[in-house]
Design goal:
single chain, Ribosomal Protein S5, domain 2, 4-stranded mixed sheet, 4 strands
């Protein structure tokens, strides 16, 4: 459960915007699946402080109406925002994530919330293999 003193913001600096970088992350095929979310990731060594950036992808093929795609992306962002503190990044590591919605029906917040918790649990040993 989130603590009261945690920062639950989702600033623009933690959004992944480069379409070339998003394509590279998806092409690498490093992924964690927790239905209905598939999370592609890329881990890089950096000189600065640790940082994570994320992009949210919803297919136009699955949801024809923009309203449905936008609602799904809003739910994904909300789940990420609430649970990103669970992911402890080591020093000098940059983590780029692409969350892709792979379900066929409109999700509920509880479905997306439980899937995001599972994704963070599966990503933690990948990022910190010693823990």
């Amino acid at each position: 459960m989130p603590t009261a003193d945690a920062n639950f913001s989702f600033p623009k600096s933690s959004r992944l915007k480069s379409s070339l970088l998003i394509k590279d992350i998806v092409r690498q095929h490093n992924a964690v699946l927790s239905f209905p979310i598939k999370c592609f990731y890329d881990i890089e060594k950096t000189d600065g402080q640790s940082m994570s950036k994320v992009a949210f992808l919803v297919s136009k093929k699955r949801f024809r109406h923009a309203v449905d795609r936008n609602r799904t992306k809003r739910l994904l962002r909300e789940a990420y925002r609430l649970h990103c503190q669970e992911l402890a990044l080591p020093e000098n590591i940059s983590l780029n994530l692409c969350w892709m919605f792979v379900g066929g029906e409109l999700p509920t917040l509880s479905q997306v919330d439980s899937a995001s918790c599972q994704i963070f649990k599966e990503l933690q040993p990948i990022i910190n293999p010693t823990k």
